[in-house]
Amino acid sequence: MLKTILISLGMTIAMGESIAYSQSNARFLQEEAKPWEGTFQIIISDERLIQPEITASLLQQIEDKRDQQNIVMWDYTPYIAIKILPYNEIESENFEPLKTYSYVE
After folding, report:
1. What pTM did the predictor assign?
2. Is residue 97 within 8 Å of 62, Cβ to Cβ?
3. Which of 16, 21, 24, 74 is the most buried (most CB within 10 A)?
4. 72-91, pLDDT tens digit by residue?
5. Which residues fall within 8 angstroms of residue 71, CB to CB, at 6 or more apart?
6. Region 23-32: what's the mean pLDDT?
């Protein structure tokens, strides 16, 4: 009985931490990720997959891969690719932002 209570308590604490993380990540996306908005696109090839969470770590990896002149296609997972626009396109006066997520067959 005590073991069950401890396991249950541990799961409750873990869920609370997960919710807190999700809320802080949502805040991060609203406040800090704005400069990156439209400069990359997550392309999902399996519609059964959920959209991956955009974290500070993922944004840093995207920035590390960004090129000055060429579009970069990064195979993030076997079912997810990330299209990363180059700096010269982002800084262009004709810049057209990308949708953050795209599904392809």
Report:
1. 0.69
2. no
3. 74
4. 999 999 999 999 999 999 99
5. 83, 84, 85, 86, 89
6. 59
